[in-house]
From TrEMBL:
<protein>
    <recommendedName>
        <fullName>beta-galactosidase</fullName>
        <ecNumber>3.2.1.23</ecNumber>
    </recommendedName>
</protein>
<dbReference type="InterPro" id="IPR011013">
    <property type="entry name" value="Gal_mutarotase_sf_dom"/>
</dbReference>
<keyword id="KW-0326">Glycosidase</keyword>
<keyword id="KW-0378">Hydrolase</keyword>
<dbReference type="InterPro" id="IPR006102">
    <property type="entry name" value="Ig-like_GH2"/>
</dbReference>
<feature type="domain" description="Glycosyl hydrolases family 2 sugar binding">
    <location>
        <begin position="58"/>
        <end position="192"/>
    </location>
</feature>
<dbReference type="Pfam" id="PF00703">
    <property type="entry name" value="Glyco_hydro_2"/>
</dbReference>
<dbReference type="InterPro" id="IPR008979">
    <property type="entry name" value="Galactose-bd-like_sf"/>
</dbReference>
<dbReference type="InterPro" id="IPR014718">
    <property type="entry name" value="GH-type_carb-bd"/>
</dbReference>
<keyword id="KW-0106">Calcium</keyword>
<keyword id="KW-0732">Signal</keyword>
<dbReference type="InterPro" id="IPR036156">
    <property type="entry name" value="Beta-gal/glucu_dom_sf"/>
</dbReference>
<dbReference type="InterPro" id="IPR006104">
    <property type="entry name" value="Glyco_hydro_2_N"/>
</dbReference>
<feature type="domain" description="Glycoside hydrolase family 2 catalytic">
    <location>
        <begin position="300"/>
        <end position="516"/>
    </location>
</feature>
<feature type="domain" description="Glycoside hydrolase family 2 immunoglobulin-like beta-sandwich">
    <location>
        <begin position="195"/>
        <end position="294"/>
    </location>
</feature>
<comment type="similarity">
    <text>Belongs to the glycosyl hydrolase 2 family.</text>
</comment>
<dbReference type="Pfam" id="PF02836">
    <property type="entry name" value="Glyco_hydro_2_C"/>
</dbReference>
Length: 943
């Protein structure tokens, strides 16, 4: 064997030895279950009652047994459990092999979560006391219970309902779906005999590290710490400045040099490694922790500071949930949810109402979200102190080192046990503040669901830091984005406001394996999401994205005098505005007969000013020589990671200017008119129009003999005036049908109108078949009803629509943001937001900034309508009302008719408030200027 071969062999042996040695001093993990909802391992299973009960079979673990077709489905607080459910339990069996080499190891059996009481046996012997509480990690030392070199039997009895009534009140009767089973992974920890039990770390923004190392090793004489990047490359050995030993715990202090701090905008993470060594300086055990350097301060009467920056929570509440697997989730799902939150420009999440999976917190650390972590309670009575102390310990011990966690929540909505408030500090080296959600407690006020006006003037608690841990409840299509613009203006500008947390992230519609797989939200109890059960994005998703954009651009209207200047505010906490990228595009759109292509006339990068967080300034965009030829301007902002912050759109041309491109020549064909059976008939260019001779309304439209079912319009909303005259004029190249109404409510200046002195409808038919409509409606300063006109068009005849305007989502008066001005195309659907269908965007509703719309018919040709009046809303059909809205707060009353053109639209409320309690934009009154200024609507129909 040559020297090179010998050297190579020595290298391989050395590497193998190093690998074996590293494994021998580090904790090994062996899963007995699968790792998540998509990777389960079959165990033997028996269920006592309900579906597939009283027989041994197989079940995938981890899982909620209902979603695997076992037992009974239950929703919490409003369904009293019957005797069968109270006694429902599952039996699990699983065999695993313990290798002989484990004889010199310490073995622990870890359950990440079991619903809810768990009795665990190894080879027929109890592993320890019965564990109570569904959402908490627990473990047993089973070294002495194993048969090494042989198969071992794990048995678990899981009671769906706890023997502890306070646990049942906290979890089993709460306002969410109740499941049973081993719903999170199960694994073995294989440790050296001399090992570290756990560590707790406090890593400050300045690099200072204080840590607690818990060990019962009698051979350990020293400890070593070193810092690596997240990929495991060592950065620096850490010199220990202070070390003290108490029974079972070593306390150490050190300082890391040149570290980057952790925050949601720049979530810099490191790996901190701990080693205990014997007197020969040999490593006995090594453990690694992901950490972030950051400092959290809650300053009374001031605010919540992270790394010296006072923060505003742009947050949401989130349950651990997936429709087909219940509370059993996955790392990929956690990442997907957090990416959606970040895409909405959120920076925080509240763990409602229980600790999440570990992988969710890991993803919050790595992707960047502030976290409020919470133990599970549900109103009064609170958790009993004895079991509550165990739960608090399990929560904090598992999660103490996550830099994303800023606060602990001791339960939810009066469910807190105040005897547990000081328990958090027993286990938390960082001594993070404890809050009571829905309570004024210590330095904070977290009262839920404030109305807009209460939020502004919060009486006796005005010295508290205010952040509602739940607000703008998103039942069905209400809340969330609706009202957020008004609320956020207050929150951003109130010194003692620390933002808030929307309720909640996703509709919890569970797959009912007992009902042919339907999605069930338990009526109106779980239909609260910004996204649907599978992550379908509702309209509020995009409203939140705009309102919570860290680049805040003042609302801007582009007119011929436009100077290119935009006022901007940096609403980041840690990022300079010039770290972001802004692109301006001047674009033109196709007409209704085009392919939806967008023509870019000009595109350039905008130089953003160097604004520190909270600073205001301006930026200026280039105006190319042909800028006034553009239909719209887009401003697209991206963060330093290349992710879209938001894209703002600004119309450049008026509707009349854009629509004039679509038709110029009115044609020269003959127009034939006649009167028959109370109808005035107009025929030209294969078109037939029929107008009522007594009302002037359009009664019938036909093209080449085939009827297009647009009729019975325009009806003027809330109109009681009698007809004064109907005048039919046959001119050289057009026919006019003019209906004038009596002036029953004359304003002082009514006589100043030169042509008409009251409401008026004017139809004009041209030789090419185009049909113009001009409507004048007398003005009124304050309007509570609808101002506009409506037509009939059967819903069953609508296949879809294509339009130029704001979209693709419908709007409410208090949810106007989040849309984009361009050509959109939606197919018909009958989705009831959060209740049925879950197809978004919803088709039916109000759409803003209408320029033109092409209505697609099913058994008819449909029609194209050009709206030549600015600031006009399209009403497309009438949405189906949700079934369960007892207070009529998230159901909106629509006007008569099917397709309407209106100048004002209604707000929508939340589960707890009507729209008019949610700020100025939710006011049901509308201001329309002077009484003597008519409102005009100009439309052109093309069939």
């Amino acid at each position: 064997m040559g020297n090179k071969s010998i050297l190579f062999l020595l290298f391989v042996i050395s590497s193998l030895y190093a690998t074996i040695n590293a494994q021998s001093v580090e904790t090994q993990r062996q899963y007995l279950s699968g790792t998540d909802k998509d990777n389960m391992v079959e165990w033997d299973f028996y269920i006592s009652g309900g579906m597939k009960s009283e027989k041994w079979t197989k079940i995938g673990v981890p899982s909620c047994w209902e979603l695997q077709g076992f037992g009974n489905y239950n929703y919490g607080h409003d369904k009293r459990f019957g005797k069968e459910v109270y006694s429902e339990y599952g039996l699990y069996k699983h065999q695993f092999r313990a290798p002989l080499e484990w004889k010199n190891k310490e073995i622990k059996l870890v359950f990440e979560g079991v619903m809810t009481d768990a009795e665990v046996k190894i080879n027929g012997k109890l592993a320890g006391e019965i564990h109570q509480g569904a959402f908490y990690e627990f473990k047993y030392a089973i070294t002495d219970l194993l048969n090494y070199g042989e198969e071992n039997l794990l048995e678990v009895k899981v009671n769906k309902v706890s023997a502890n009534e306070s646990i049942n009140h906290a979890e089993r009767n709460a306002d969410f779906w109740i499941f049973g089973g081993i719903f999170r992974p199960v694994y073995l920890q294989v440790l050296p005999k001399e090992h570290i039990e756990r560590v707790a770390v406090d890593a400050k923004a300045d690099g200072q590290i204080n840590a607690e190392i818990f060990t019962t090793s009698k051979k350990a004489t020293s400890v070593n710490l070193f810092l690596s990047d997240v990929n495991g490359t060592k950065i620096q050995d850490l010199k220990i400045d202070v070390i003290s030993k108490a029974k079972g715990k070593w306390s150490v202090s050190t300082t890391a040099d040149n570290v980057k701090t952790w925050n949601p905008e720049k979530p810099n993470l490191y790996t901190l490694s701990f080693e205990i060594l014997n007197k020969k300086n040999e490593v006995l055990h090594r453990t690694n922790e992901k950490i972030g350097f950051r400092t959290v301060e809650v300053l009374e009467g001031d605010g919540i500071y992270v790394n010296g920056k006072r923060i505003k929570f742009k947050g949401v509440n989130r349950h651990s949930f997936y429709p087909s697997s219940g509370r059993t989730t996955s790392k990929s799902l956690s990442i997907a949810h957090i990416k959606m939150m970040k895409d909405m420009n959120m920076n925080a999440v509240r763990m409602s109402h229980y600790p999440p999976d570990v992988h969710f917190l890991n993803a919050c650390d790595s992707l960047g979200l502030f976290v409020i972590n919470e133990v599970c309670t549900w109103h009064s009575p609170h958790l009993e102190t004895e079991v509550g102390e165990k739960i608090v310990k399990e929560t904090v011990v598992r999660d103490v080192n996550h830099p994303s966690i800023l606060l602990w929540a001791n339960g939810n909505e009066t469910g807190w046990n105040t005897e547990l408030d000081d328990d958090y500090a027993l286990w938390d080296i960082q001594n993070r503040e404890v809050i009571h959600p829905w309570n004024i407690f210590n330095k904070t006020n977290t009262m839920h669901y404030p109305s807009y006006h209460i939020f502004a003037y919060d009486t006796y608690a005005r010295d508290k830091i205010y952040f509602p841990t739940e607000f703008l409840h998103g039942l069905y299509d209400g809340g969330h984005g609706a009202g957020l613009d008004d609320y956020w203006k207050q929150m951003w500008n109130m010194p003692l406001s620390a933002g808030g947390f929307l309720w909640d992230f996703a509709d919890e519609a569970v797959v009912r394996t007992d009902k042919n797989g339907i999605l069930d939200t338990d009526g109106n109890h779980a239909a609260d999401g910004i996204v649907g059960p599978y992550g379908e994005k509702e309209a509020s998703y995009f409203t939140i994205k705009e309102v919570w954009s860290p680049i805040y651009i003042e609302d801007r209207v582009i007119k011929p005098s436009f100077n290119g200047v935009f006022r901007v505010e940096n609403r980041y906490h840690y990022t300079n505005l010039n770290e972001c990228k802004l692109t301006a595009k001047w674009v033109q759109f196709d007409g209704p007969k085009g392919t939806n292509a967008v023509k870019i006339l000009s595109e350039h990068i905008v130089e953003l000013p160097a604004l520190e967080p909270s600073e205001k300034g301006t930026f200026k965009i280039d105006k190319p020589s042909n800028w006034q030829a553009a239909d719209a301007l887009y401003l697209n902002a991206k963060d330093l990671g290349g992710n879209e912050i938001f894209t703002w759109s600004y119309p450049v041309k008026t509707p009349k200017q854009i629509n004039s491109r679509s038709f110029r020549d009115v044609g020269s064909k003959q127009i034939i008119t006649k009167t028959k059976d109370g109808l005035f008939l107009v025929e030209t260019n294969d078109m037939l129009y029929a107008f009522s001779t007594t009302s002037g309304l359009l009664k019938k439209v036909a093209k080449k003999g085939k009827e297009i079912p647009l009729s019975n319009g325009p009806i003027i909303f809330d109109h009681k005036d009698k007809i004064e005259s109907i005048d039919i004029k046959t001119l050289d190249n057009k026919v006019e049908i003019i209906t004038v109404f009596e002036m029953t409510d004359k304003s002082p200046n009514w006589a100043s109108h030169k042509e008409f002195s009251s409401d008026m409808i004017k139809w004009t038919v041209y030789p090419n078949g185009l049909l113009d409509l001009h409507v004048e409606i007398k003005g009124k300063k304050i309007v509570k009803g609808f101002k506009g006109i409506t037509f009939s068009f059967p819903e069953e005849e609508v296949e879809g629509m294509k339009w130029l305007g704001d979209g693709p989502y419908r709007v409410w008066r208090n949810r106007m943001k989040g849309t984009q001005f361009k050509v959109w195309e939606n197919d018909f659907n009958n989705t009831v937001t959060g209740e049925s269908g879950f197809v978004y965007p919803e088709f039916k509703g109000f759409y803003s900034s209408l320029y033109w719309v092409k209505v697609k018919g099913k058994s008819n040709n449909g029609f194209t309508l050009y709206c030549n009046s600015g600031n006009t809303f399209l009403r497309m059909l009438t949405p189906q009302q949700p079934k369960e809205d007892p207070n009529h707060r998230v159901s909106v009353d629509f006007p008569e008719g099917d397709i309407s053109f209106v100048k004002n639209i209604p707000p929508i409320g939340t589960k707890f408030q009507l729209g008019d309690k949610m700020g100025p934009q939710g006011n049901s009154e509308n201001y329309f200027g002077n009484d003597d200024d008519p409102i005009t609507i100009n439309l052109t129909f093309e069939f």
